[in-house]
Amino acid sequence: MSYDPSPSYPYRYPPQQPQPPQHDMTYPWQPPLDPPEPAPRRRPPRAPLGHHSDLRILRSAYRWQRRTASLTALGYFTLFLLLSAFAPAFMTSTVTDGLPTGLLLAVLQIPVTWLAIVLYEHTARRYVDPIADRIRKQSELDAKREAAR
């Protein structure tokens, strides 16, 4: 499991203008005036990049992708090692004339590694890349909005 040490800072509104005094300075014993209506704050339609959950979603999708591909290759290799250590009779038995099971399973490690690579690319295209593209487009829009200010 990975940990992202970058802090998430909340959006900070620009500083407000100084408020006029609540009473007339000529007569300080008078009751305070009614407070003025606060100016409505205009919230951005979407928080700036890094302040929303899209990056967390991208990190978890990428984490899931790494785990899936790694466990595919390492799981098969671990199975091969366990069979070699604890089932030597099975590994020395022959599948066909002169081809032991252990050698067949060792040769199958190459296609399983290719399968892990294909699985990694498939999950990248299907799950991770669309999220990254969405974040990239949103950051471009945020940059254009900041430049227009």
Describe the structure.
This protein has a two-stranded antiparallel sheet. The chain has 149 residues and is mainly alpha-helical. It is 57% helix and 3% strand. Helix 1 (54-86) packs antiparallel against helix 4.
What is the fold's blueprint, element by element?
Blueprint: H1 54-86, H2 88-92, E1 94-96, E2 99-100, H3 101-107, H4 109-148
Antiparallel strand pairs: 1-2
Helix pairs in contact: 1-4
Work out the strand percent.
under 5%
- Average pLDDT across residues? 79
SSE class: mainly alpha
Strand segment count: 2
Largest sheet: 2 strands, antiparallel
Proportion of helical residues: 55-70%
Give the terminus-to-terminus CA distance: 40 Å
* Shape annotation: rod-shaped
- Uncertain runs: none
Oligomer: single chain
Strand order of the largest sheet: 1-2
Radius of gyration: 31 Å
Number of helical runs? 4
Helices and strands, in order, run as HHEEHH
Protein name: DUF485 domain-containing protein
InterPro entries: DUF485
Keywords: Membrane, Transmembrane, Transmembrane helix
